[in-house]
Amino acid sequence: SEGSAEPEERDVTADGGVVLSMSGRAGDGEVPDPGWVVHARYTGRTSDGAVFTSPQAAEAGATWELGKPTTWPTDVCAGLDRAVATMGVGDTARVACRSARYCFGEAGRPAIGVAAGAAGLEYDVTLTRTENRRKNIFALEDDEKESVARQCHARGNAAFKARDFDAAADEYDRAHAHLDAIMEFPDPGHRITVKALKVTMLLNGAQACFKSDRYRECVSLCSRALDHD
Question: What is the value of pTM for the model shown?
Fold first, then answer.
């Protein structure tokens, strides 16, 4: 009957690891792109119902950059980041992070009450606003593209070391995209340097995908690296 419709449910990661149930939709809210800054209010609970997020997150909200773990608040996990990336401004949803891979991984987050290897975290979240702070890749000068690529490379290495392999793969992919957009080289040596770095990004991405069981992407990245030779 009218008013009794089930919440819209969405498998965010296509493997059942993060499921979003939309409880309120603004209708015309802007959906952020990767790299955008988002502001959201949220409350997170462990599988036994204990709240692990800060009161400030529920009342005032928090801000972070999508896909960039170094900007995430302590109580934001990969699953929430991925789910928010599919929401529009004004949307309210419940996000179920069913796999430890999308929670806080093998290490957990004991400081906020999330045990090592914990899964089954749930967030109630409202996306309140977004901001596009990322300059379009084609609006950058070539030296800016290389600078961004090297920053992405460093973040990818940090994420890989932290065993957040999905985030690492995303950073390596972004680094390669910026290197691939470089149009002019001051000398042949610089062209060789950039080419070598592009291959490194592809192989690093392949390794990150392998570690996160994304085998088809791993094979594709390896093939692309061979095409550079």
Answer: 0.60
Structure tokens at 177: 């995209």
Nearest to residue 19, comparing CAs of 167, 145, 119, 117?
119
Question: Tokens at residue 80, please?
Answer: 């929430």
Average pLDDT (168-197) is 89
Which of 74 and 68 is assigned the larger pLDDT?
Answer: 74
Instruction: Starting at the earlier edge strand, list the strands of the sheet with 8-11.
Output: 8-11, 18-24, 92-97, 121-131, 37-45, 62-65
Residue 32's pLDDT is 86
pLDDT digits (tens, 9 = 90+) for 135-177: 667 777 888 889 888 988 988 898 899 888 888 888 899 899 8
User: Rounded to whole angstroms, how far apart are CA atoms 181 and 186?
Assistant: 15
* Residue 81 near residue 66, CB atoms below 8 Å: yes
